[in-house]
Write a structure and sequence with these properties.
Elements lengths: L4 H70 L8 H18 L7 H26 L3 H9 L2 H71 L2 H5 L2 H65 L1 H41 L6 E4 L1 H11 L1 H6 L3 E7 L3 E4 H17 L8 E9 L3 E8 L30 H11 L3 E7 L3 E9 L8
Parallel strand pairs: 2-4
Antiparallel strand pairs: 1-3, 4-5, 5-7, 6-7
Helix pairs in contact: 1-2, 1-3, 1-5, 2-3, 3-4, 3-5, 7-8, 9-11, 11-12
C-alpha cells in the first residue's frame, strides 16, 4: 500500500511523540531514583558514623580499663601512660554518639543510660587510681573487688552491642534499598529503551519505505533490471565457491583435528586407569620402602603427584582445544559468530587464562603480577579469553632463556567509558624491523625456534577490532614487549 505524504507526516510525528514521552519518563524516573538513592545514602553514612563512634567509644573505655588494672596491680605509673588519652577519647566519642543518635526516635532512654554508665565507669576508675596514688592500696583494692566497674562495663557492652547491631541493620537496609533502586532503574530503562527502539524502528521503517517508493516512482523498471541476470549469476558462482571452501574447512576441522583430539582424550583416560594399579603398588610398599629405595621414592612422587598433575594439564588442554574447535565449527557454519555480551569480571578472565599456562610458566621459573582497577564489563567472554590467552601464551613461548620470565598485567578505566589493559613481559622482545608485521597473518618475527603458524596476533587483532577496540605494541629487543589493548566497557551489538 502506497504511503501518502500526509500519512507519512502523521505517522512519523506520532512515533516521535511516543519516543519523546518514553525518554521523558526515563529521565524523570532516573531523577526520582537518584533523589531516593541520596536519602538512603545519607542514612547509610549516618549509620556507619554511629557504628564507628560506638566501637571507638567501647575501645577507648576498654583501653582505659586495661590501663587502670595494670596500675592497680603493679603500682607502676607507666601503665597510666595511655589512660588520660583513652578517657579523653571516651568522653569525646560519647558526645559524638549522643549527637548522632539524637534524631532517632526511642533512643533517648538508651543514650541517657549509656551516658550514665560511661560517666560512672570513668569516675570509678578515677577513684581507684586516686586511692592507689595516695597509697591507700587496701581501699583501692576493696573498691575494685566490689566488681562495680565490671558490672558497669558489662551493662555498657550490652548497649554497645545493641548500637552496633542496629547500625549494621540500617546499613543492610540501606544497601538493600540501593539495590532495589538499581533494579528498578534497570528495568525501567530496559522498558523505555525497548519502546524507543520500537519507535525508532517504526520511524526508520516508515522513512525507508517512503523513500523506496519515491525512488521506485522516479526510476525506470528497465534500468533497475539492466544486467541483473548477469550479476545474479556472478554472485551465485562466487557464493558456490565460498560455500565449497567453507565445507572443506569444516571437513578438515571436524575430522583431521577432532580425530587426534579424541585419541588424546581416550588415551589420557586409559593412562589414568593404568595409573591406579601403579599407585596401589606404591602405596603397598609403604614409607619404609621409600627411605630404603630412592627409586621407589621417585616412583611414589611420580604416581601420586607428577603423573596426575600431567594428566590434569593434558585433559584441561584437550578440553580447551575441543572448545576452540567447537567455536571454529560454529563460525564456519554461521559465517560469523554472533557476539554475546554478558557481565564479565576482567580479573576472572585473565587469571583463568594465566592458570591455563601455569605449567609452562612454572617450568620457566616465571611469575605473573596482576593489577586490576576496572569495573565489571559487558562483553563477549569467549573473545576476551581468546585475546588474553593468546597474549599470555606468546609471552611464555617467546621468553628470554637467560632470565626468569615475568609477566605484568595492568588494567584500568580510562576516559570515554573505556578500559586499557597492558600485558608486559621481560622476554626476548621484537626487533624494530619486525614490529610492523607482527599483526599480519602468517608473519612471524625473530628466531623461528618455536612452533606456530603466525596466526595468533593476527587473530587477536581481528577479535579486538570486532569488539570495537584497538591494540598497539611497544618492544625493546632483548628487554621485553608490552601490548596495550583499549576496549569499550560496554559491547554494543547491532543486529540487522
Amino acid at each position: 500500500m502506497t504511503i501518502t505524504s500526509r500519512a507519512f507526516v502523521q505517522s512519523t510525528t506520532a512515533l516521535l511523540l511516543v519516543g519523546f514521552l518514553a525518554l521523558l519518563g526515563i529521565v524523570g524516573m532516573t531523577f526520582w531514583l537518584g533523589e531516593r538513592a541520596q536519602v538512603y545514602f545519607n542514612e547509610v553514612i549516618e549509620a556507619r558514623d554511629a557504628r564507628g563512634a560506638a566501637v571507638d567509644l567501647r575501645t577507648a573505655v576498654q583501653s582505659a580499663e586495661s590501663s587502670q588494672r595494670g596500675f592497680l596491680f603493679s603500682g607502676n605509673e607507666i601503665y597510666l601512660a595511655p589512660y588520660d588519652t583513652a578517657t579523653t577519647m571516651a568522653r569525646r566519642q560519647l558526645e559524638t554518639v549522643n549527637r548522632l543518635l539524637a534524631s532517632y526516635k526511642g533512643a533517648d532512654v538508651s543514650i541517657q543510660r549509656l551516658t550514665a554508665l560511661i560517666n560512672e565507669k570513668l569516675a570509678e576508675m578515677d577513684r581507684t587510681i586516686a586511692l592507689k596514688r595516695d597509697r591507700r592500696d587496701a581501699e583501692a583494692l576493696a573498691l575494685f573487688r566490689t566488681n562495680r566497674g565490671k558490672n558497669l562495663m558489662d551493662e555498657a557492652n550490652i548497649f554497645f552491642s545493641g548500637l552496633v547491631r542496629a547500625a549494621d541493620d540500617r546499613l543492610t537496609t540501606g544497601v538493600g534499598e540501593q539495590q532495589k533502586n538499581a533494579a528498578l532503574l534497570r528495568w525501567f530503562s530496559i522498558i523505555g529503551g525497548v519502546v524507543i527502539i520500537v519507535v525508532v524502528g517504526g520511524a526508520a521503517s516508515t522513512v525507508l519505505r517512503y523513500t523506496r517508493e519515491l525512488a521506485a516512482a522516479r526510476d525506470e523498471v528497465g534500468l533497475l533490471n539492466a544486467g541483473l541476470e548477469e550479476r545474479v549469476q556472478a554472485r551465485t558462482v562466487d557464493l558456490a565457491k565460498a560455500n565449497e571452501e567453507i565445507q572443506r574447512f569444516v571437513h578438515i576441522v571436524s575430522h583431521d583435528l577432532r580425530a587426534p583430539l579424541v585419541s588424546i582424550i581416550g588415551f589420557t583416560r586409559e593412562f589414568e586407569d593404568n595409573l591406579k594399579p601403579l599407585k596401589a603398588l606404591v602405596d603397598r610398599s609403604g614409607a619404609v620402602g621409600d627411605a630404603a629405595d630412592p627409586v621407589m621414592r621417585e616412583a611414589r612422587m611420580a604416581a601420586t603427584d607428577h603423573m596426575p598433575e600431567a594428566i590434569h594439564f593434558i585433559r584441561s588442554s584437550a578440553n580447551k582445544m575441543d572448545s576452540l574447535i567447537n567455536a571454529i565449527l560454529k563460525l564456519s557454519r554461521e559465517g560469523r559468530r554472533q557476539l554475546r555480551p554478558e557481565r564479565v569480571e576482567l580479573a576472572d578472565v585473565i587469571t583463568k587464562s594465566a592458570a591455563a599456562i601455569q605449567h609452562q610458566l612454572s617450568e620457566a621459573g616465571g611469575k605473573t603480577n596482576f593489577h586490576f582497577d576496572v569495573p565489571p564489563l559487558h562483553h563477549d567472554r569467549l573473545s576476551l579469553e581468546q585475546i588474553f590467552g593468546n597474549l599470555l601464551d606468546n609471552a611464555v613461548k617467546y621468553r628470554a632463556k637467560q632470565r626468569p620470565l615475568r609477566i605484568d598485567v595492568r588494567a584500568q578505566a580510562i576516559e570515554g567509558d573505556r578500559i586499557c589493559v597492558e600485558v608486559s613481559d621481560n622476554g626476548r622482545g621484537i626487533a624494530e624491523r619486525d614490529r610492523e608485521r607482527v599483526f599480519e597473518l602468517f608473519k612471524r618475527s625473530g628466531d623461528q625456534d618455536q612452533p606456530g603458524e603466525g596466526i595468533g596476533l593476527a587473530y587477536v587483532l581481528t577479535v579486538i577490532r570486532n569488539l570495537g577496540g584497538e591494540i598497539s605494541m611497544t618492544s625493546d629487543l632483548d628487554r621485553g614487549t608490552t601490548f596495550k589493548i583499549v576496549l569499550p566497557r560496554e559491547l554494543h551489538v547491532f543486529q540487522s
